[in-house]
Description:
Blueprint: H1 4-21, H2 23-54, H3 59-68, H4 72-100, H5 106-112, H6 116-125, H7 134-156
Amino acid sequence: MFGLGRILSLAVAVVCGLATSQAPEFSQQYRQRLNGALEELRRVIETFDADAAKNNLTRERAINVYEDTGSAFLQDRAGSVRAAIGRLGDLERQSQAFDAAPPVLRPLVVARAPDGPVLQGAYRDFEPAVPITLHGFIWTGAGLVFGFSTAWLIGLFFRRKKRYPARNLRV
Length: 171
């Protein structure tokens, strides 16, 4: 019969396997949101650049015009534009990291340096999926191994030492 320890070990392994099996799907949904955010930010910055060019200004000079005005609103707007440009660079670097990484390592790209708003949106709208890809099976297997290992290590503290009866040795 199965002991309680073995049943608990199996349960922990299955839960870990199920959790890690979702990593490739979550990274895919994150990537889709990332690409949407990239397109929108590019459009905003391209419009800003076009407005600046229409007035014979470079991007940097247009931001400086905002900053040099006495209006707090326009100074705040300059900070917003600078932040959007910086975020666009960050998102482009992460998108390039996704493109360079093999599918099995894409969850690690998300874990390394996620964008807060994109991560929150992906988490909020995440829908679990059954992993039928090779990298989904790899992540599931890694979770199972992790779960069994964790349960085995925890179980070490609860195992009773076997007591062997003293042998009656006669000489």
